[in-house]
Write a structure and sequence with these properties.
It contains no helices and 16 strands. A hairpin with a 7-residue loop joins β1 and β2. The radius of gyration is 19 Å and the shape is extended. The protein has one domain. Helix content is 0%, strand content 63%. It starts with 10 loop residues before the first strand and ends in a 5-residue tail after the last strand. By secondary structure, it is mainly β.
Length: 197
């Protein structure tokens, strides 16, 4: 299954803090959605005019093509994803311009109640990378603690639900380089309305 998560509202403000920021950063995203075509206009402090990225998706069973354009690109960039799914094993092959052969990431999941282990392999990794997620659930509050090789103490993501359409979350970016897993975890990410500024 391929899932695209897009804003419930066509216009959304994000105020976010990260370690070392003296004041909150603000980005305004405006999405227009037409079937498999998504336009994203975004503004940030210092931008003279809105930046735009246009995504066009074509979906065929387990094959997803994503063409995207941005200012300055002479021709569309394309990433092709091919997924194979076998029970708790997911293989993702992806191609992009300049790649001599397909890149592959293999995910193997083991699930025990509120404990989820994810082992993943990629070219150049000497042994599998592992991220362990442990969830604790209290009413509308969900805490997720996760561990990875090299972390001295567990990282935590806190999810809080205010309503069905309002979702406060922390953003996690994971990048992998051979046997190195880097995690960037902003301290706080909040949604706000225009009246908050």
């Amino acid at each position: 299954m391929v899932m695209f998560v897009l804003p419930q509202r066509p216009q959304r403000y994000h105020v976010f803090y990260h370690r070392g920021s003296q004041r909150p950063q603000r980005i305004l995203f405006i999405f227009t959605i037409e079937a498999t075509k998504v336009s994203c206009f975004f503004y940030h402090r210092g931008s003279q005019r809105p930046q735009r990225i246009l995504f066009i998706f074509t979906i065929e069973a387990t094959k997803v093509s994503c063409f995207f354009y941005h200012r300055g690109s002479q021709r569309p960039q394309r990433i092709l994803f091919i997924f194979t799914i076998e029970a708790t094993k997911v293989s993702c092959f992806f191609y992009h311009r300049g790649s001599q052969r397909p890149q592959r990431i293999l995910f193997i999941f083991t699930i025990e109640a509120t404990k989820v282990s994810c082992f993943f392999y990629h070219r150049g990794s000497q042994r599998p990378q592992r991220i362990l997620f442990i969830f604790t659930i209290e009413a509308t509050k969900v805490s997720c603690f996760f561990y990875h090789r090299g972390s001295q103490r567990p990282q935590r993501i806190l999810f809080s639900y205010f309503s069905e359409r309002s979702f406060l979350f922390h953003l996690l970016n994971v990048t992998t380089e051979a046997t190195k897993v880097s995690c960037f975890l902003p301290q706080r990410l909040t949604e706000a309305t225009e009246d908050s500024f």
